[in-house]
Each structure stands twice: as C-alpha cells, then as structure tokens.
Amino acid sequence: MSRLTSHENRLMFVFDILHYEDDQLVSFQYRLNGKEWIDNGQRNEVNLDGLAPDQYILELRGGIGALDDSITSVLVPFRIYPPWWKQWWFMVTGFCIILMLIWLYFRSRIDKFRKELKVARQISDLESRALRAQMNPHFVFNSLNAIQECIVTGRIEEAYTYLSKFSRLLRMVLEHSDVAEISLEEELEVLDLYISLEKLRFKNDMHYHFQLADDIDPEEITIAPMLIQPHLENAIWHGLRHKDGQKNLSLSIKENPVGYLEVIIEDDGIGRRQASVIRDKSISGNQHKSKGRQLSENRMELLRMNYPLSQMDTTDLYDEQGEAVGTRVTLVIPII
User: Fold this and answer.
1) For residues 207 and 198, is the Cβ–Cβ distance under 8 A?
2) Rounded distance, CA 251 to CA 253, Å?
3) Greatest extent of the chain over all pairs of C-alpha atoms, in Å
4) pLDDT confidence of residue 157
5) What phi, psi does 53 have (nearest 5°)?
6) Tell me: the pLDDT tens digits for 135-152?
7) How far apart are CA 158 and CA 140, in angstroms?
8) Contact in structure between 159 and 151 (CB atoms under 8 Å)
C-alpha cells in the first residue's frame, strides 16, 4: 500500500493491456472504493484530484468489447494521511495539554483561594483572641465582685467556697485564652463552675437545668471557647437578678445542622424590655453593661466568615396575657 501525505492528493495513474494487436478495440474502466464503474474509453490514465485524507482502493479493468464482472480487475491500494496537526496523536497530545493548562489554572486559583482563606482565618483567630482577651478581665471583675459581696455581707463560708471554685474557673479560663478551640467537655465544666458561683450569689434560689443530646460525645467535639458563658451571664444579670421568687435557667445542646451545635439558653426572668428600663434607671446597672455579650456577638460575626451557618437569635417570651416571662437565646456554633 502506498503511503502519501496530505499534499500528495493529486494523482495520475497510467496503465495498459499487453498483447493486443489492435489497440483501437480496447476500452478501460475504473472505480474508487467499490463505487460505480466509470468508463474511461481508450484512455489509459486516470486523474484523481483533491482527494481527502483517507484509505483508498483504485480498481482498474480493461478488455475488448463490453466489460463485465467476469473480467479480472487490478487493485491499487493507497492511503493519504492527514496533516500532522489533524492526526490522532497530535489531537490527543493537544487535548492533554489543554487539560493540563486548565488543571494548572484551577490549581493556581484554588491555591490562591486557600492562601486567602488561611490569611482570613489567621486574622479571624487573632481578632477572636483579642476579643477573648477583653472578655477575660470582664469576667474576672464580675466574679471578684461576687466574692466581695459575700465577705461584706458576712457570708465567710460561702466566700471560701466561692474562692475555691473561682480559682479553678480562673485557671481554666486563662488556659483557654491562648487556644482557638477546646473540647465541649471543658467548656461545659467552665459553665458548670460559673453557674455554681452565680447560685451562691443568689443564695441558691436559682435553679439551673442542663440537657445534652444523647448522640453528642463532649470529649470528641471541639468548639471555640467562651461563646456560651456570656449569654448565661446576661440571662442571670439582666433577666433573673431583678425577678422575685424562684429563678430558672436552662441550657440545652444538640447537633443541628450537621457539623454545628444548636445551643439554647432560656430564662424565666423579667424580659429584655423591663431589664432595659431598670438598667437605664440604675447607676449600678449602667456600670454592668453586657460587654461579654457584645464581645460574643462580635466573635460570632468572625466565625461566620469561615462557618456561614453560625448565627445567634434572641427571642422574647410572653405568656397568654402578653406579659414578659423570659428570654430565649439560640446559638448555632460550628464544631471545629
């Protein structure tokens, strides 16, 4: 089989029949790739022009008189190859190169995005630590005020108990001040110590209920520290402190949605509207603005940069007569 390039597509074939005395009686036919036979008369040449790249078989036959299928034909196979840029190896190579360029492009974009995300997380972490650094002195100040109150009012035994728990609580808070996440178990211990101290302040007339979903293992889950405590503090200071009679505070934690914890803090205090009125009239109330809550809200904003489902909602609770009967805070915080 003849092998021709794409430029060799103008062909002329010359042929003849031997041992015939009278050439005037001879006629020829040809066909290409099994198509219809073409009469060529007495001309012994065939011109093929502008053939596309493909594989061909030229059949030639000749004789005297009418030509039919009983006459043996001569086969001339040949192949015209496409230009190099249309051949399969070039197209496969080009396709692979294009895929590699696309992969490199998206890889560079992904790397750039990861670097930007890493920087954003570092900034978020630094800002979060700065907020916690502001929160810790605020928390310590409130606790020391409670100890001072026990001493001034002559409750020495309670002051000793308060100091013992406070030292443990302070140590944990300081240990957590330099870390980006802690286990849920450690966070719950901090909350338990804090609530027990606040119960001393209220002379144990505050009832605290905690509920953790059965499918949550607090040792295996890590979260950002000190996100829940400010809301418990706010419920106690502004919801329950001014309420007469029994005071109830509850905390429930479950996973909702997947990868996030839903934390619900609910109190049966006087409500935010009445608390705001008292805070505006009271000098001491003005001194105890909910700085911890504000810092916690700022940290939630930072968390949303990396965990978009993070959120915080506050709902005022009312009875059937429209009277305020407490406040519910719902936090959705990421499992880190």
Assistant:
1) no
2) 7
3) 146
4) 82
5) -60, 120
6) 556 667 767 777 787 788
7) 18
8) yes
